[in-house]
Amino acid sequence: MAAIAKRKFDVVIVGAGGSGMRASLQLSLAGLNVAVLSKVFPTRSHTVAAQGGIGASLGNMSEDNWHYHFFDTVKGSDWLGDQDAIEFMCREAPKVVYELEHFGMPFDRNADGTIYQRPFGGHTANYGEKPVQRACAAADRTGHAMLHTLYQQNVKARTQFFVEWMALDLIRNASGDVVGVTALEMETGELHILEAKTVLLATGGAGRIFAASTNAFINTGDGLGMAARAGIPLQDMEFWQFHPTGVAGAGVLLTEGCRGEGAILRNCNGERFMERYAPTLKDLAPRDFVSRCMDQEIKEGRGCGPNKDYIELDMTHLGGETILKRLPSVFEIGHNFANVDITKEPIPVVPTIHYQMGGIPTNIHGQVVAPAADGSQQIVNGLYAVGECACVSVHGANRLGTNSLLDLLVFGRAAGNHIVGAHKAGLSHQDLPADAAAVSQARLDRLDSATDGEYAQDVANDLRTSMQQHAGVFRTQASMDQGVQKIAELRERVKRIGLKDKSKVFNTARIEALEVENLIEAAQATMVSAAARHESRGAHTVNDYGDTPEHPNGRNDDVWMKHTLWHSASNSLSYKPVNLKPLTVESIPPKVRTF
Ligand SMILES: Cc1cc2nc3c(=O)[nH]c(=O)nc-3n(C[C@H](O)[C@H](O)[C@H](O)COP(=O)(O)OP(=O)(O)OC[C@H]3O[C@@H](n4cnc5c(N)ncnc54)[C@H](O)[C@@H]3O)c2cc1C
């Protein structure tokens, strides 16, 4: 066998979405030798699909400050978010948004030249009193504008991109430090070793573990799989956000910005039912809450259409001019995916999987932390994670809209700064272990030597259907327990996936098979963590744990105000406390969430 090609960098970043490119920019500008790997061309990363906006308390259009943003985010997280990280993010928000503006981001403008801001779910003024205009937007193409801006800045700073390279595994040495990654060059099918003083994972979410998802096909949780296989636990994976307004039957997202601009959800009687559930915030209550109300309406027979199985989003009163100015992509999506002219008729929507709140555990510098043998939380030397694949944790049990793009900027930048600092203090390359590529080589060899076996797509489809069935908007203990069994069986099937086409050049079947090995890690982490959490909190709502006087909304802080850690090798769980202590301000004490 030919020797495996090796290359050496200061830093290897896996992922060229918003978080990866915000971090790489910081590193390239500091003169570090940085390689950014991506399965697709950088500007095709899922960040490009973000529509609604970036949260920052600029106060351009209504009174606002970061304390309100901090409060909303803690409350939105159902008190599972770490308050130090949330304070850090909300305080940094205006700075990173203005910085982006100076990079050339084409935000929409107010008449006075300031950045346009729209209202968004769960974002309020004066601690829950009324909706606030906090989402900084470029029409309904905010992610598109942001990703292109960051890409251009990286080109200028001479960041090196490795496009259509798929990272396979982390390389750890005998002391557990991360010293590089292995990667497959898709064009040639060759395996490479990329050595680095620091590796940063920015691989985005794993939304493709569900059948109905707003996520891109590439969102297969590769970073989660890499971490899990390398012995790093995954945190809070039971918390998955359903976005209230996916186009029924298509899954494509209609941004919350629609409701920010005034769109209304209606049941089959034409009733604006959110007024009943959330008298103050109405259609702009947080996503977990709105999704459950929609599901409730459908369950109680007030869904729309012949099968009464969807809700209608009504934008007809906004007027064609506003829609074409503020929501041009939504107009196109209505036309292309639902055959609806949204200026004239309402569009059918259902809650659709959108975002993972959990991920690879990190501190506010993006450094990955994992429990040592004695149970203490220790930094994994050489490894950072940012963006949707990471869990810092600012979103807790439920993310507020616009806080993800913000998370990418704040923690991408913070991780970049921290890595630069560590390099300045004198980091050096460590020796690669002799078997650096052994795990990846074994994975590839198994696929190449399998003479029969199942199609990766069949296994992936069954996995997605199981997740949809057993980890949906409303969960039951019995169904989650069944889900745990099903996913364990699927893990066995993943081991038997075979490749009919063994060719090397651009063999997408091989890529898909390797992705399924990541999907199963994310899926099992989700199912096992969910079945073990015997309460309802944020997006994890279990019928068995309903509202009682002792535990309003089914949330049980005495037992469950803690982060879950799932360990792949043993398929077992451990827990760690939530940090209720912010950096400088007073803690927001837990309360019952009402809107
Ligand atoms: C339709 C949609 C609309 C949204 N709208 C908003 C919004 O308005 N506001 C908001 O705050 N949030 C929004 N979100 C959420 C937000 O966009 C995402 O959470 C965020 O963009 C994720 O960014 P990221 O940098 O973590 O990853 P991504 O942008 O998903 O990028 C991941 C990168 O990792 C690379 N990668 C993955 N695996 C590998 C591998 N094995 N090897 C090499 N490269 C790899 C990919 O190629 C890609 O470059 C939206 C999400 C969706 C799906």
TrEMBL record:
GO CC terms of this entry: plasma membrane
Positions with a binding annotation for substrate: H243, T255, H354, R399
Substrates-to-products reaction catalysed: a quinone + succinate = fumarate + a quinol
Cofactor remark from the record: Flavinylated by SdhE, about 5% flavinylation occurs in the absence of SdhE.
Keyword Signal among UniProt keywords: no
Topological category with respect to the lipid bilayer: Peripheral membrane protein
Domain Fumarate reductase/succinate dehydrogenase flavoprotein-like C-terminal: 461-594
PANTHER family: SUCCINATE DEHYDROGENASE 2 FLAVOPROTEIN SUBUNIT, SUCCINATE DEHYDROGENASE [UBIQUINONE] FLAVOPROTEIN SUBUNIT, MITOCHONDRIAL
Entry protein name: Succinate dehydrogenase flavoprotein subunit
Native source organism of the sequence: Inhella crocodyli
